[in-house]
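ugh ok fine here u go
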Amino acid sequence: MIKEFQSQWQGEQPEVYIMDAAFYTEDNLSQCSQSIDWISRVPLTIKSAQELIQTVSPEQLNKSIVYKGYSFCAVCNEYAEIKQQWIVVESEERKI
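structure:
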């Protein structure tokens, strides 16, 4: 779909593509990792995402100074043989 979009887009190509979690498959990542920069939510159907959520400690999370009630941390990970940076976001409101 991205290649079709790129062929039809008139003008400067986007620097980064923002994708929903449906994009995040091994096949899509393998096809796109060399040709585009992208950001996507990692679905919790991915085993390593489930494990990460369970193992992130409160000490690893940094409280946001911009968004009250949110904390985050960056984690290096590899999926589909592609090195990535995952951002874990925790919401105080969702914990309740």
